[in-house]
Amino acid sequence: MAVHLDPIGVLHTCFKEKFGIPRQPNLAVEAPGRLDFFPEFARPEAVRGLEQFSHIWLIFIFHKAVKKGGKWSAMVRPPRLGGNKKVGVFASRSPFRPNPIGMSCIRLEAIESTPKGPVLHLTGVDILDQTPVLDIKPYLPYSDRLDTARDGFAPAPDNKTCQVSFSDTAATQIQEREKAIPNLFSIITQVLENDPRPAYSNARFSSIKEETRTDGLNKDRVYGIRLFDFDLKWQAAGNKIRVLCLDPV
Amino acid sequence: MAVHLDPIGVLHTCFKEKFGIPRQPNLAVEAPGRLDFFPEFARPEAVRGLEQFSHIWLIFIFHKAVKKGGKWSAMVRPPRLGGNKKVGVFASRSPFRPNPIGMSCIRLEAIESTPKGPVLHLTGVDILDQTPVLDIKPYLPYSDRLDTARDGFAPAPDNKTCQVSFSDTAATQIQEREKAIPNLFSIITQVLENDPRPAYSNARFSSIKEETRTDGLNKDRVYGIRLFDFDLKWQAAGNKIRVLCLDPV
């Protein structure tokens, strides 16, 4: 028994690859996104009243998380558990699941009217660029905010665990781009201070030899994150992250 | 661009028809449900760890809300607005939407191991019997409980607005069934005290002639709700509801 659904639109975000996407919405509070509707669904009436809600649920397809041959795994290794402990796929929010459906509650900043229909402007996005969206629902505090829910094995994470600094080169490059991309400085800081490194990586808070460079950074390992139209290059040592530069892709 | 999804299981609930289903989860806190997995997905490993969460999201198909010819309406009339004001379908939780996807956070009471695989026992259900389920996700307070979200036009409802009483016949019938259906008395009370009558109906808090019977009930209008394996018959006057009997279907 298969169900056939037609995406209503596509999400454009600053996250061009999986690495670096915040592990939950509203962590990088200024990370922007926009939802463009496909022509059939681009009708102003369909979103009338939505502007009264501060947050919306997006239900979407994890379009880059489909496994080869359509196979699914019954167990996954959540990054929150260090990546070395397995739990059932339905006890996780892993993108690799029998039906690759995602849901995120995202801040709705504005609804823009365009000749091609309404466009939703969003922040606090934790979703990959080009993601197909199946549905939009208002976030209803009276039904979605459960004050008594138990956390299970996923208590609130230690947010903002990293101190982020910038090289002169990076600072100049960011300043030059802030006209085109408002709040770019904050966005990069928010993405990095949540520590995008995988928890199971040796790199995180552990075996980095802080003496490899005089400034304490690991001289060998340079991370790259595709963000907007550039490649963000940075290094890490313990809980210190230094942005090196913004490379063209 | 169509997306093809396979339901992972089917939900069995006490709600056999749309009328009477609570308008949000956890209103009728004892309303029971069970999720049976389809054979391909009935694997104990897939739910391992899920028992650590008190609540789960069910993502499901509104299988009885598909419009003829697959047409969708850009605007709907939410019952919360009295049924006489239209809003955009994406500003509502209406089951009639371009992709008939529903989501509810439901209390997880227990995971039972059976020879046919795991079965999830649920309460606080607001979902129609036989609903196909697409996905299960843990409710994560740190990401799903937004303390700052704005309510829009759907503030918390006035719950439990009706006083429910029972005829001797009904009381006896319920007592006889409580062995088979635990908490039946509470479940019926919870369903009715939330007032299942449509807000736009003249019946609600308005033009009922309270003098039509000596007990103040409207003698002509008898409501029926299919619940479990019986038809619940009741009458209403203002905010008083009286259960008459449990008829066989």
From TrEMBL, chains A, B:
<dbReference type="GO" id="GO:0008168">
    <property type="term" value="F:methyltransferase activity"/>
</dbReference>
<dbReference type="InterPro" id="IPR023368">
    <property type="entry name" value="UPF0066_cons_site"/>
</dbReference>
<protein>
    <submittedName>
        <fullName>tRNA (N6-threonylcarbamoyladenosine(37)-N6)-methyltransferase TrmO</fullName>
    </submittedName>
</protein>
<keyword id="KW-0808">Transferase</keyword>
<dbReference type="GO" id="GO:0032259">
    <property type="term" value="P:methylation"/>
</dbReference>
<dbReference type="InterPro" id="IPR041369">
    <property type="entry name" value="TrmO_C"/>
</dbReference>
<dbReference type="InterPro" id="IPR023370">
    <property type="entry name" value="TrmO-like_N"/>
</dbReference>
<dbReference type="InterPro" id="IPR036414">
    <property type="entry name" value="YaeB_N_sf"/>
</dbReference>
<dbReference type="InterPro" id="IPR040372">
    <property type="entry name" value="YaeB-like"/>
</dbReference>
<dbReference type="InterPro" id="IPR036413">
    <property type="entry name" value="YaeB-like_sf"/>
</dbReference>
<comment type="similarity">
    <text>Belongs to the tRNA methyltransferase O family.</text>
</comment>
<keyword id="KW-0949">S-adenosyl-L-methionine</keyword>
<dbReference type="Pfam" id="PF01980">
    <property type="entry name" value="TrmO_N"/>
</dbReference>
<feature type="domain" description="TsaA-like">
    <location>
        <begin position="5"/>
        <end position="148"/>
    </location>
</feature>
<keyword id="KW-0489">Methyltransferase</keyword>
<dbReference type="Pfam" id="PF18389">
    <property type="entry name" value="TrmO_C"/>
</dbReference>
